[in-house]
Amino acid sequence: MSDSNNNRKPASSLLSRNSASSINRTSNTILSDSSSTTRSALLTSNNTTARSTTSFFNSNTARTTSPLSSRTTMSSDRGQFTPSRFPGATEVSIQAQLAGFRRVQEKQFDENQVSKVAIHSREVTEMQYRRFASFIEKQSGIVLGDGKQYLVNSRLSTLLIRFNIPSIDDLIDKAMDPIANKEISSAVIDAMTTNETLWFRDTYPYLALKNLILPEFAMQRKSQVRIWSAACSSGQEPYSIAMVIQEQATAMNKVDPSQCQILATDISPEMLARSKAGLYDNHALARGLSLERKQKFFNPTEDPNVMSIDNSIKQMVQFRQFNLLSTFNLLGKFDVIFCRNVLIYFNNEVKASILDKFASCLNPRGYLILGSSESISGLTDKYEMVRCNPGLAYRLK
Ligand SMILES: C[S@@+](CC[C@H](N)C(=O)[O-])C[C@H]1O[C@@H](n2cnc3c(N)ncnc32)[C@H](O)[C@@H]1O
Fold first, then answer.
1. What is the Å distance from ligand 1's center to 339 Cα?
2. How many Cα neighbours within 13 Å face the side chain of 351?
3. 23: exposed, middle or buried (C-beta count within 10 Å: 0-12, 13-18, 19+)?
């Protein structure tokens, strides 16, 4: 299976990764895993270390810390913003602006450094590629498959300058020692993720939410609805869910938006920083968003190319770094799980394990919504298929 959309990174998007890696983000990567013991340690930053669900949802940490400050050395998204004060801007968006400015400065710094970093090789050797593929698979589940050296070369090249490392082989050596080189390891794994996403992707999951799932919850008079966007990338998926919940608030059978909690997680710190910032350029806004929704749920910023998501939507979503290979025990129970366009990167054994873990954290008759090219067939018998016309969802048996 392949996620055809993943072949296309938003070209020249101010908010996308750097163009060098975008061009080559054509991975047919599959993901797999066998052990998960050290992964969450590696990929969980100290302020996102597993917390109880309640404390997580009650916490304001995500809103009061700079969303991008921990990413200021990422060369890939530098230069997105100029520092500016936006009317009505939230703390987060101001911080994002400032972080953007710092990155512009760092970019200039890095560009000056280019000549000083003695790059020996931007190409991974065959033997190192095999070791690296196995490392990435163990850490994230991503199966690189054969012949993806070009992908590794293009995605890791920018990290050579960032970490002042002379060759991809050396970078990989360091990355494979996550205890000694946690930041490098995390950045390397992050660079190997594919983050293609768009607003209301495939439409039908959001119609199912609006026409089938939320009315069902309203009929059941559920006091609280918990939804998990389990591979949220840059935030379009959880924010689209939040918009649907807001829109149905005027329906006859409605779920009160204030009773809805949306947890959005991803393995990628960079994507989480973008998600939390809630700033989207015109290119991203043009992908899947109607004019009406754009006007209703986004605010202009000083930069005519960038809009910020409205606080009414933003405050419905909590973001947290989370590796799907780790244990789900501390996440609590959910009524709906969106896990879209990420299982395709995993091998069947890992898919089956994740599907079973989802089942164990769904409330009775809770829903699982997968990507349009993903299925549970042959992997688990814990769900029944629900036809939504169009599309389908899976309900816990
Ligand atoms: C193609 S995007 C899908 C985004 C969104 N769900 C959608 O359908 O538009 C896949 C996302 O999965 C994330 N991912 C990859 N491996 C992961 C893992 N082991 N745990 C959590 N997230 C992972 C990537 O960082 C990336 O943002």
1. 8
2. 23
3. exposed
Q: What domains can be seen in the chain, in order of their start residue?
A: 4-191 (no CATH), 204-396 (3.40.50.150)
Q: For the chain, what's the residue count? A: 397
Cβ 39 under 6 angstroms from ligand 1: no
Which amino acid makes up residue 124?
A: V
In angstroms, the CA 227 to CA 241 distance is: 9
Ligand 1 pocket, 6 CB below 6 A? yes
The most distant pair of C-alpha atoms in the chain lies apart, rounded to whole Å, by: 66
C-alpha 173 to ligand 1 mean position (Å):
25
Q: Are 170 and 84 in contact (CB under 8 A)?
A: no
Q: Whose CA is nearest to atom 7 of ligand 1?
A: 197
Residue 133, CA distances (Å) to 126, 138, 141, 371 in order: 11, 9, 10, 25
Report the SS3 class of residue 364.
strand
What is the pTM for the complete model shown? 0.77
- What residue owns the CA closest to ligand 1's atom 2? 195
Q: Cβ(371)–Cβ(356) under 8 Å? A: no
Place of tokens 């968003």: 289
Place of tokens 């930041």: 183
Per-residue pLDDT of the chain in tens (397 residues, 90 and over written 9): 344 333 333 333 334 343 333 333 333 333 322 333 233 333 333 333 333 333 333 333 333 333 333 333 233 332 233 223 333 344 444 455 445 544 444 444 455 555 466 888 989 999 999 999 999 999 999 999 999 999 999 999 999 999 999 999 999 999 999 999 999 999 999 999 999 999 999 999 999 999 999 999 999 999 899 999 999 999 999 999 999 999 999 988 899 999 999 999 999 999 999 999 999 999 999 999 999 999 999 999 999 999 999 999 999 999 999 999 999 999 999 999 999 999 999 999 999 999 999 999 999 999 999 999 999 999 999 999 999 988 899 999 9
Is the CB of 324 within 6 Å of ligand 1? Answer: yes
